[in-house]
Amino acid sequence: MKWEYSPAPESRAIADIKDRYMPFIDGAFKEGGGEDRDTINPGTGERLSTVSTVNAEDIDRAVTAARRAYQNVWSTMPGAERGKYLFRIARAIAERSRELAVVETLDNGKPIKETRDFDVPAAAQHFFYHAGWADKLQHLGLGRAPQPLGVAGQVIPWNFPLLMAAWKIAPALAAGNTVVIKPAETTPLSILVLAEIIADAELPPGVVNIITGAGDVGSTLVNHLGIDKVAFTGSTAVGRRIQRELAGTGRKITLELGGKGANIVFEDAAQDQAVEGIINGIFFNQGQVCCAGSRLLLQESIADEFVERLKQRVETLRVGDPMDKNTDVGAINSEAQLSRITALMDAGIAEGAELWSSSCPLPKNGFYLSPSIFTSATPSMRIAREEIFGPVLTTMTFRTPDEAVTKANNSPYGLSAGVWTEKGSRAMGMAAALRAGVIWDNTFNRFDPAASFGGYKESGFGREGGPSGLAAYLDTDDEAVAQ
User: Fold this and answer.
1) Which three-class secondary structure state does DSSP give residue 362?
2) Which pLDDT does position 4 carry in this prediction?
3) Residue 341 · residue 195 · CB < 8 Å
4) Which of 2, 245, 269, 406 has its CA 20 to 30 A from that of 176?
5) CATH for 262-449, options being 1.10.238.10, 3.40.309.10, 3.40.50.1580, 3.10.129.10
6) For residues 238 and 255, what is the distance between their CA atoms, to the nearest angstrom?
């Protein structure tokens, strides 16, 4: 018997989407000098709203406002007082959580149950967590008197717009810095609602500035001479360019880039539990996750059985309207991203991998893709090496733990990995050998604001979250502080 779910859509009216949004500079929403950009609802392909974007003069105003706020107010404010503002923002995010979840789903395309149950609560948690550290920086173990860096220029991606904003804004403010942040051009709405929350919290003008626009705006921001610290989350190609441009400037940089995470399943693993972990690892947020478990390494003795179980489970995933509470897999963020995914899938077929896709029907309008699995793949194939950033899993096999480690590490990336086994010693041994910043044991995609997150190799450097994430926004050189 096949279960049929009646539609259970969340109300779009909860979001109260405005027809027009503006940048937030020096404590006020102001028209930008750039060209207007429409933001599109990925679930329908229709216009959602229009956003005023900034030009170089607006960026100058934002950086100047951030510098003034840093020097006159924020860096001199006692940590306990800074913490009060962060607590206030955290509570307001929680209070407006349903509205923010709807805004995020409409603007991004991810299922409402993900924004409701993960994105928005996690964003509030990051503000709560860092609020608690604001008056305890001297207890981080980062030197006698760690000091803020100044003005932080931050650029965030479109896959977790609100959560990435919280990841970057909260530690910067807790450490005493001020912020100029640019969201992705396709998903600016939730951070502009966050700006309303910041304004309502009466944060001093200029402490947080939100500028809108495309890649040229981000490039101008990170290269602005008034920026003391750059934090970027996005593609490896852009991260390389930022590193080249800022080489020799003396600014601190944090880069969280792409990934090609390996999920390694041993023959002694609890298979049903592992299947659920693989599903969560690659189909959460339609696979548009830097740390997605997009490579599945299966021990040969269980490979065929496991793949069949996995396919059966994928067939039960519901693809459709992101606003429906029953939807498991929503819309791809944009038409351009959908084209990039399908181009890599075509390359996988051309190179000899076998493609299987779910038979779930897709909506006629919007940007959708069936959850898919490649088998018979080899490590040299593009689908095994390049970040697909979509609901596409590539499977390979191994015989021994050493072979699993070799194949998992045979990647230009090093952001995440998962190990599935009943033996704790094997899990710990694998974790020590894997070159990845985050390694999960018998689970995947679990996050905590107290735990650091970041990568190796082309997945970037620096950490976000926990004491290590705060260190990225502090001058921890005792000698420099003494001077």
Assistant:
1) coil
2) 77
3) no
4) 245
5) 3.40.309.10
6) 10
